Amino acid sequence: MAKDIGIDLGTANVLINVKGKGIVLNEPSVVAIDTKTGKVLAVGTEAYRMVGRTPGNIRSIRPLKDGVIADFDITEAMLEYFINKLDVKGVLSKPNILICAPTNITSIEQKAIIQAAEKSGGRKVYLEFEPKVAAVGAGLDIFQPQGNMVIDIGGGTADVAVLSMGEIVTSRSLRLAGDRMDAAIVAYVKNKHKLLIGEHTAEKIKIEIGAVYDADPEETIEVRGRDIATGLPREVEVTAAEVEEALHETMLAIVGAAKEVLEQTPPELSADIIDRGIMLTGGGALLKGISQLFASELKVPVLLADAPLDAVALGTGTLLDNIAHHKQY
Ligand SMILES: Nc1ncnc2c1ncn2[C@@H]1O[C@H](COP(=O)(O)OP(=O)(O)OP(=O)(O)O)[C@@H](O)[C@H]1O
C-alpha cells in the first residue's frame, strides 16, 4: 500500500511528512541543470551547494519564486526526485498528497502546484493554505470557534491569517520574505561597504546576526566579497545594527500586512487574539527580536513556534489523518 504524504513545497525548502513516520525529507528547493543538454545534474542539498559557484554550462535553478511555481518542468522533476527517494509508493498504488500554497495565489498558480504533485507521482492531490497548516503544525487548535492568528514568514512569501473553526477568516499574503531580506542585505553591503556579496553570503549574515529589533551593538560578522572599485576580494565587518537597518523595509511591509489583517478581524475574534497571542512560524520567525517587534507594533502578545521551519510540514502530518476532508482536485 502507498503511504499518504504531506508536502511543504516552499520557495526555499521542501519538506515531506510521511503519514505515521513524520518529517523524512528536508532539502533546499534547488535543481542544478546542464544548460546544453537540459539534463538534471543535482537536486536539493547537493544543488544548493552549487548556487553561485557553477561554471557556464551548469545553472542552479530555484524553480519556485515568491511562493509559486516559476518553472513547472523543473518543479515537477524536483518533486519526483524527492518522492522517489522515499519509500512511499506501493506495488501498484500511488500516495495521496496533501500540498500547501500561500493564500493569495491565482487559480492558475494553484492548478500548477496540483498538476506538479500529480505528475510527480500523486494519486489524489489535496491543497491547503499555508497559514492554516502552519497554525496546526505550531500546535494551535484552530478547529474551535475562537480566533487564532498566525504570521508565517518563509523564503518567498509572508502569510498573515486569522483562523476560526478550521477556516481562514481574514488573511494577507505578501510576495516578500526571506529572499527579499537577503537581497536587501546584498544591496546594503554594496552601498555602505562598496562590497559585492552573493545571496548565500547575505543569507548567512541574516541567519547568524539578523536582528529586527534592538540589535545587539556588540554583534558583528566578517563578510567576504568583491570590492566594487578594485574588483579584488576584500573582507569587511558588518554589524547587527546594520542588518537591522537593511531589513527594516521588509519588516515594515510585514507589520503593515499584520495590521491590515487585525483591522479586518471581527471584534470577538480580536478579543481571542489578545488572550491567545499571535503565533510566528516559518524561517523568518528565527530573526532576533522579531517577537518584540510584532508585540510592540501590534500591542498583542506574540509566541514563537517551537520549530518554526518545520511548522507547515508538521501540520500536514496532523491534517493527513483526515485527508478525505480536504479540498481535492
Ligand atoms: N535563523 C534564521 N534567521 C532568519 N532567517 C532564517 C533563519 N533560518 C532560516 N531562515 C530563512 O527562512 C527562509 C526559509 O523559511 P521556510 O523554510 O519557512 O520558507 P519556505 O517554506 O521555503 O518558503 P515559502 O513559504 O515562502 O514558499 C529562508 O529565507 C531562510 O533564509
UniProtKB/TrEMBL annotation:
Membrane found in the keyword field: no
MF term (GO), any: ATP binding
Residues annotated for ATP binding in this entry: T11, A12, N13, G155, G156, T157, E203, K204, I205, K206, G283, G284, A285, L286
GO annotations of cellular component type: cytoplasm
UniProtKB keywords: ATP-binding, Cell shape, Cytoplasm, Nucleotide-binding
Cellular localisation: Cytoplasm
SUPFAM superfamilies the record matches: Actin-like ATPase domain
Chief subcellular location: cytoplasm
GO BP annotations, alphabetical order: cell morphogenesis; regulation of cell shape
Pfam families (UniProt xref): MreB_Mbl (PF06723)
Biological role: Forms membrane-associated dynamic filaments that are essential for cell shape determination. Acts by regulating cell wall synthesis and cell elongation, and thus cell shape. A feedback loop between cell geometry and MreB localization may maintain elongated cell shape by targeting cell wall growth to regions of negative cell wall curvature.
Family indicated by similarity: Belongs to the FtsA/MreB family.
Oligomeric form and interacting partners: Forms polymers.
Protein name: Cell shape-determining protein MreB
Organism for this UniProt entry: Lacticaseibacillus saniviri JCM 17471 = DSM 24301
